[in-house]
Amino acid sequence: MSHSFVIKAGVLRFRIPIRSETTMYGKAFAPEYRGSLGELSVNTSLEDVLAKAVEEQRRAQLSGDAVELAHTGLAVAEASRRLGRVEEAERAWKDSYRAARRAGDRGAMAWAVWSGGTLARQRGDLALARRWLATAAELAEQGGDIVARGYSLAGLAETGRIQGDYEAVGRLHEKLLAEARKRGEARHTVWALEGIAQMHRNTGSFDSALALFEEAAQIAGDAGDDRGRAWALRGIADVRSAQGDPEAALALLTEAEVLCREIQLVGALAYNHKMRGNVLYRAGRYAEAEACYSGSLAEFRAMGEPRGEALSRLGLVKAKARQGRAAAETAADLDVLERALCDIGLQHAEAMIGKARAELGVAAADAVPAH
């Protein structure tokens, strides 16, 4: 039996099935680990993935196997990216692409460019991310790699969602969810549910967001997808906090943090810590929130993640303002943050900062922040 919710945001309206009782999901797998690395689990620690990938990469270099070089380069790129080592990830995905091109393997070329597009999004270059991910989808189509095509389209959908372009990507999320359900692909089903849930949450539909996040957490848990479950628990915590239950939210974030640390998900852990700041801030625990935002800010800076950095800075400004910081300094910092968020390409940046100004009772300052 299927059910559906409707998102309404301006002219945006789309239905998405949130549960299909007849769908059977297989165990989660990691298609980005290919060739000699195909036996690695989605939950293999990233340091272990990197060590194994580098070892196999050396063997491929000695044998001159270009396809295997492409596969191992991709794994190096993805492990490095998820560990926050962005320069290494940049070199590795390009090496993977060059090896795949030498081999004439368009599917492997698609995976490499997908990794590059995902890295560009992580680094805050959303326009470049869209270009690379669109190219990856085309290469995957040409190479007949259905999974690479799905990942590339999912990357495009996620990039648009992060930008706040729900009108453009809502239907794509819905389509990818339906395809993932049909094939019983747990990881992609979880990803799509979480993306749609986030749009529900951001448009104020908390009950439907909670149902979607909870389904994602259940499927991820049953499929052994610790990564997907960690993100889903973070989403549930956010909604529970917004509904006025901070203690339940903090417990969920603690559970998710354990999963993040086991796999060494640096980015997910940083976002977990930022969300802990959000939960504490909503609960009026401003000094604790400030400490969490300071921690996540350092984490995002270390991994070169400008969107997370800007959002942590916003939380930090708000927490300090609630503890008596001068209004002029708060206003000046919000001006700088508005420009930073707009530069990243977030369509809702002005509305986000406008909401913060109204909440804190400050006006646009157009001044240099105090240090």
UniProtKB/TrEMBL annotation:
Top-level lineage group: Bacteria
Cross-referenced InterPro entries: TPR-like_helical_dom_sf (IPR011990), TPR_rpt (IPR019734)
SMART domains given in the database record: TPR
Residues of the signal peptide: none
A Pfam family assignment: TPR_12
Family matches, as SUPFAM superfamilies: TPR-like
PANTHER family associated with the record: HTH-TYPE TRANSCRIPTIONAL REGULATOR RV0890C-RELATED, REGULATOR-RELATED
Protein's name according to its UniProt entry: Tetratricopeptide repeat protein
